[in-house]
Amino acid sequence: MVEGARVATRDDLARVADLARDLRAELRAQRGGTLWEVRDARPEPLADALAAMLDRPDARLLVGTLDDHVVGYGYAEVEKLRDNTRLGVIGEIYVEPEARAVGVGEMLVEQMVAFCDAAGCRGVDASALPGDRQAKNFFERAGFTARLLVMHHRSDPGAAQ
Description:
- It contains five helices and five strands.
- It is an alpha+beta fold.
- Helix 4 (104-118) links the parallel strand 4 and strand 5.
């Protein structure tokens, strides 16, 4: 198998939207996943939300491939900070479970970091849900370290968070 990563095209949007829905379903079952979905994740219609990134110079939507079949995606955006510096933010990254551990995710992260570096970012942030050891380890292997922990107090104990 030959793995790869490339900039997404309009022809990829339906497949990427399906993968984004798979990501939401996977994270929804984890602690913090339902709140992530309604606060941080791109909203439906996903194909439209993702298509908007294709024309933005401050965003990069990528697809990960195995033998030219799209099996993952990721996107990064550049945020301008109050001191006029820039910060890269990996908004989402997902690889189908069957295609994990062969290098697709690593290639996506490499290209997102390179995009942010080329945009003059002072660093790149990525998030993982609490308890998602696999995601935390993945980012640490890619050279990321924690810089902020977000603590949350649930006001409605019966609500899924």
